[in-house]
């Protein structure tokens, strides 16, 4: 900080501005009265004439006060800009004097800012921002099981099984619905074109709990996810559809939907697509597809 | 303000104030007196409008102000034109003169000139 800035007067308060304005106008009236007195008027008459010439004192004060406030804020803004300019000039001179040190400072700052930005982006995406594709994320809860084992103590986990899911769905009354998902790897394609992709087996209630909107078609129903009678259906993420080559066509659907999944030895027709984000919501990894839990190969 | 004084056109007061200050620092009353005396009272300067103009010019950085003491030993706020103010005055004066020359040349015509 420069010495000049240290001794710069502090910004005036509105009371100071008011007092200064009043003093200036009183001074004007006084000077005017002095001039009239020199022309031969008595002091009292000169002051009265000076006040009359000035007009409505309080009205003028109000108008001038408003313009003085605007002026004051403009002056302060100009002061700040001048101060910034001065700082930039000083910084530029210092940087030119020791370029090595300056470069090190710039790189350190850039790395620090970049790392902080990246970390904030991660935290924002994982913790702060609402998951995309879910209709009412504030109403969705993830369930955890806490169990006590004699050999491991208290263990909290989110892994459960289908029997627990059916029990929860049948017995619990504190929530409107329960959905379950299991993530795993699926093989897409055949032969040399085959590749592994993350996918999820989800219950039909998954769609009614998270309420994503399908880009095309519909999601599978509870009838298509019935134990022992699961349909050969799948919900594909939009990204998967766009990336997959077409191998068959489905009547009425755009060509990019017309792919056929082979899950182990089963075939499934993906007649429905959903935003990629919807398959990511309750699931910890990005999924390419969602198939009925009961249709698990 | 004399009753038969001419009303000022919008924007001209700022120019008149800057021109007056171009002769040297003055307080508000000094500016008003100088303008009235020089024009024999034909230009009416409203005191309140004068101070609004001064504060506006100060806000724009065209004038600076500081407290001083007048000839008759009275505390007064003295205004001084800045370099930016002088530059502004020069540019605006040029525009004003060109404008008035054009308007005057039209208004002083006695007969319609032949069309070319």
Overall pLDDT score of chain A: 76
Question: How many individual β-strands of chain A?
Answer: 8
Strand order of the largest sheet of chain A: 3-4-8-5-7-6
Strand content of chain A: 15-25%
Structure explained in plain terms:
- The complex is a heterodimer of chains A (297) and B (116).
- Chain A is α/β, with parallel strands linked by helices.
- The model of chain A is unreliable at 4-8 and 246-286 (pLDDT under 50).
- Chain A has helices at 3-6, 14-38, 43-54, 57-97, 99-128, 162-171, 205-210, 238-243; strands spanning 145-149, 153-157, 181-188, 195-202, 233-237, 261-263, 266-274, 289-292.
- Chain B is of the alpha+beta class and 116 residues long.
- Chain B has helices at 12-21, 28-38, 47-59, 83-107, and strands at residues 26-27, 63-69, 75-81.
- In chain B, helix 1 packs across helix 3 (47-59).
- Chain B is elongated, with a radius of gyration of 17 Å.
- The termini of chain B are far apart.
- Chains A and B meet through helix 2 and helix 4 of A and helix 2, helix 3 and strand 3 of B.
Please describe the topology of this protein.
The complex is a heterodimer of chains A (297) and B (116).
Chain A: H1 3-6, H2 14-38, H3 43-54, H4 57-97, H5 99-128, E1 145-149, E2 153-157, H6 162-171, E3 181-188, E4 195-202, H7 205-210, E5 233-237, H8 238-243, E6 261-263, E7 266-274, E8 289-292
Parallel strand pairs in A: 4-8, 5-7
Antiparallel strand pairs in A: 1-2, 3-4, 5-8, 6-7
Helix pairs in contact in A: 2-3, 2-4, 4-5
Chain B: H1 12-21, E1 26-27, H2 28-38, H3 47-59, E2 63-69, E3 75-81, H4 83-107
Antiparallel strand pairs in B: 1-3, 2-3
Helix pairs in contact in B: 1-3
